[in-house]
Design goal:
Blueprint: H1 17-22, E1 26-30, H2 34-45, E2 49-54, H3 103-116, E3 123-125, E4 128-135, E5 138-145, E6 148-154, E7 156-159, E8 166-167, E9 181-184, E10 199-203, H4 207-216, E11 222-226, E12 232-233, H5 250-256, H6 259-277, E13 298-299, H7 303-309, E14 313-316, E15 319-323, E16 326-329, E17 336-337, E18 340-343, E19 347-348, E20 362-363, E21 367-368, E22 374-376, E23 381-382, H8 387-403, H9 411-428, E24 439-440, H10 442-452, H11 459-465, H12 467-475, H13 491-508, H14 513-543
Parallel strand pairs: 1-2, 1-7, 2-3, 7-22, 9-18, 10-11, 10-18, 11-14, 12-13, 23-24
Antiparallel strand pairs: 4-5, 5-6, 8-19, 15-16, 16-17, 20-21
Length: 545
C-alpha cells in the first residue's frame, strides 16, 4: 500500500479488513477521462476501495484541450453525439447547454462530476503506470511519480485509457515517397500559418477527417478529401432543438428486431436520405457507400458537403501512387500537386504496461476471460450513441461482478460468446469490422448489460399495470437514466428525467418512424394494387380475339 508522509493522502486503509477480504476489493483505475471517472465513482459507491491514476496533470482525458501537446480535442471541437447520450445516469448535463456541447463544457462537467461525488481525494494525477503484473491473487502495479517508481498491490485493475492511444498511418510504402509536410490528426489543433495558401490532402473517411477539412479549407488554397471506401452521411440534427440520434425510441428498436421489418425500415430510411441529399446522404458518386445504411459507421459531419459545393474541398477516392509532391487518385488520369498531407486515419489502443497483451480475448469487450480481475472500460465504439454512456454501464457491470451480486459465465461460455460476437459483427458491419474491432450496436449492447444487472424494467408488466409509464418509456429517446428504473432509491428521479427528455423530444420531433413505415407500406400496397389491376387489363386485352 502507499507509504505516506505526514499530511499526505492515504491510498487505501485497512479499515474493515474482514469486509475487504470478502467483498470489498482494492481496485486500481487507470485513466482519468470520462470512463475512468465513471468507474471510480461507481466502484466507490458500491463499497470498493478504488483509486484512480492519471498520467497527466489533470483529469479529462481527450476532452482536455492542450494547445502545445499532441492528442485530445482541437480548439473548435464539439461533440458528435447529442447531450442526451453524454450525461451520467444520476448527474444530468446542465439544461442550458446546446444539443452538441463544446469541449470546454464537457471538461467543466467532468470536473463538476468529480466534485459532486467527492472523487478528488481518490484521484492521483501525474502517476504514470509503468507495469502491471499478477502474482497469485495480487496485482502488482508499478507507478512512476517524479522519476521514482514504486510498486503497489491491488486485488483488481480496471483499465480506462481508451482507444485513441497510438495514431495509425497508412502502411503502404508509396507514402514514404511524399516530399511534402505530413501530420496526423493527433497533432492537429487549428489551421496554422503553415497551411495558408497550400494544397492540402486529408486522408480518412471519419468525422475527424471531414471536420478538419471543413476547418482547414478556410485557410488553405484547396483541400482534397480522400476516402478509399464509400460512406453514408447523416446530419446531426433536424433544426436547432432536435438531435437525430434521439429518433430511435424503444418502440422503433423493437420493430427493428424483426429481420424483415429491419430491412424494410433501412430501405425506407435510405430512400428518404437519398431523396433529400443524394447518393449516400451526400450526393457524391466517388463516395457512394458499398453497404446498406446502418451496416457501417455513419458520418455525421455533413458540413463538409457545403464546402464541396463551393469548391473549397475536392472529394477524391483512394490514393494509388505518390511521387514527390504529385499524387494520383483512383479513376484520375492526371496527378494532383499536394503540399501537405493530414492523416485522419484513426488510432489503435496500446497497453505498454501489459506485456504482449492480446485484447481480443475480452468478454463483451470488458472482462479478460483468463482473469476477470483485469477489466477494460470504454473499449467500445457504438455505431450511434456514445462511448461514455456505454462506459457507465460497463462500470456498473464490473462493480457488480467484483461485489459478487452478478456472476460471469464459465471461461468456455465466454470464449464461445466472443467467437459468436465476432461472426455477428462481421455480418452486421462487413466494411468496418476489421478496422474497428470494438464496433457495436449501442442499443443491443446497452440492453445486454442492463439485463445482466437486472436493471431493465418489465415492459410487459408495465403495459398492463401502468400503461402511461409504458407509453412514455416506449416513445422516449434512449437515455442513461434507464439503468436506474429498477433502483428503489433512484427510480423516481430517473423517471422524472426521462419524462422531461420525452416531452422535449415530443415538442420538437415531427417525424415518426412507425408512421413513416405505415405510410410507405400503404404506398407500396396501393402501387401493387394498381400494378395488379394493370396486369389484369393487359392480360384481358391480349386474350381478346
Amino acid at each position: 500500500m502507499f507509504k505516506t508522509k505526514a499530511g499526505q493522502r492515504v491510498l487505501y486503509s485497512n479499515a474493515n479488513k474482514k469486509a475487504t477480504t470478502q467483498t470489498i476489493k482494492k481496485i486500481a483505475v487507470i485513466g482519468g477521462g470520462w470512463s475512468g471517472l465513471y468507474a471510480l465513482k461507481i466502484l466507490r459507491e458500491d463499497g470498493h476501495q478504488a483509486v484512480l491514476f492519471e498520467a497527466s496533470d489533470s483529469i479529462g482525458g481527450i476532452w482536455k484541450y492542450q494547445e502545445n501537446q499532441p492528442g485530445g480535442v482541437w480548439q473548435s471541437t464539439y461533440t458528435n453525439s447529442s447531450k442526451t447520450y453524454l450525461h451520467a445516469s444520476d448527474y444530468p448535463l446542465p439544461e442550458a447547454l446546446p444539443l452538441f456541447p463544446h469541449h470546454s463544457d464537457i471538461l467543466k462537467y467532468l470536473h463538476n462530476y468529480a466534485t459532486h461525488f467527492h472523487l478528488w481525494n481518490h484521484i492521483y494525477c501525474q502517476h504514470n503506470i509503468i507495469n502491471l503484473k499478477k502474482s497469485g491473487k495480487i496485482w502488482f502495479v508499478s507507478i512512476e511519480q517524479n522519476s521514482v517508481v514504486t510498486n503497489y498491490e491491488f486485488d483488481a485493475v480496471v483499465i480506462c485509457t481508451g482507444q485513441s492511444r497510438v495514431p495509425v498511418v497508412p502502411s503502404d510504402h508509396m507514402f514514404t515517397h511524399f516530399c511534402g509536410i505530413t501530420m496526423h490528426s493527433h497533432e492537429y489543433k487549428y489551421p496554422t500559418e503553415q497551411m495558408k495558401g497550400k494544397s492540402i490532402l486529408i486522408i480518412g473517411g471519419g468525422e475527424s477527417a471531414c471536420e478538419i477539412a471543413n476547418e482547414v479549407s478556410s485557410t488553405a488554397e484547396c483541400v482534397y478529401l480522400s476516402m478509399r471506401k464509400g460512406r453514408w452521411f447523416q446530419p446531426k440534427h433536424n433544426g436547432p432543438h432536435l438531435a437525430l440520434d434521439t429518433r430511435n425510441p424503444r418502440k422503433a428498436r423493437m420493430i427493428m428486431k424483426n429481420k424483415f421489418l429491419h430491412s424494410y425500415a433501412v430501405k425506407v430510411y435510405e430512400m428518404l436520405s437519398i431523396a433529400s441529399f443524394g447518393v449516400g446522404g451526400h450526393g457524391i458518386d466517388k463516395w457512394a457507400p458499398k453497404v446498406p445504411m446502418l451496416s457501417g459507421i455513419v458520418n455525421k459531419s455533413r458540413e463538409v458537403v457545403d464546402k464541396i459545393t463551393i469548391g473549397k474541398v475536392i472529394p477524391q477516392q483512394g490514393v494509388i501512387d505518390i511521387k514527390g509532391h504529385s499524387i494520383w487518385f483512383e479513376n484520375e488520369a492526371q496527378p494532383t500537386h499536394i503540399d501537405m498531407i493530414i492523416y485522419a486515419t484513426g488510432y489503435r489502443p496500446e497497453f505498454s504496461f501489459l506485456d504482449n497483451y492480446n485484447s481480443t480475448q475480452l468478454y463483451k469487450l470488458v472482462f479478460d476471460i483468463e482473469d476477470s480481475t483485469l477489466c477494460f472500460i470504454g473499449m467500445v465504439r457504438p455505431l450511434f450513441g456514445s462511448i461514455p454512456a456505454l462506459a457507465e454501464l460497463q462500470a456498473r457491470w464490473v462493480s457488480a461482478v467484483f461485489k459478487g451480486t452478478v456472476k460471469l459465465p464459465s471461461r468456455e461460455k465466454m470464449q464461445k460468446c466472443i467467437q459468436q460476437d465476432a461472426i455477428y459483427q462481421q455480418q452486421k458491419f462487413p466494411v468496418d469490422y476489421k478496422r474497428v474491432p470494438y464496433l457495436v450496436d449501442h442499443f443491443e449492447y446497452a440492453d445486454y448489460i442492463t439485463r445482466q444487472l437486472n436493471a431493465q424494467p418489465n415492459f410487459w408488466w408495465l403495459f398492463f399495470v401502468n400503461n402511461k409509464k409504458w407509453r412514455i418509456l416506449m416513445n422516449a429517446p434512449w437515455t442513461p437514466f434507464e439503468v436506474l428504473l429498477n433502483d428503489p432509491e433512484k427510480q423516481g428521479q430517473a423517471y422524472k428525467n426521462i419524462v422531461k427528455e420525452y416531452r422535449l423530444k415530443k415538442e420538437t420531433n415531427h417525424f415518426s418512424l412507425s408512421k413513416a413505415l405505415f405510410a410507405s407500406g400503404v404506398g407500396i400496397a396501393m402501387a401493387m394494387t394498381l400494378l395488379f389491376q394493370l396486369s389484369i387489363k393487359t392480360i384481358s386485352w391480349l386474350l381478346k380475339e
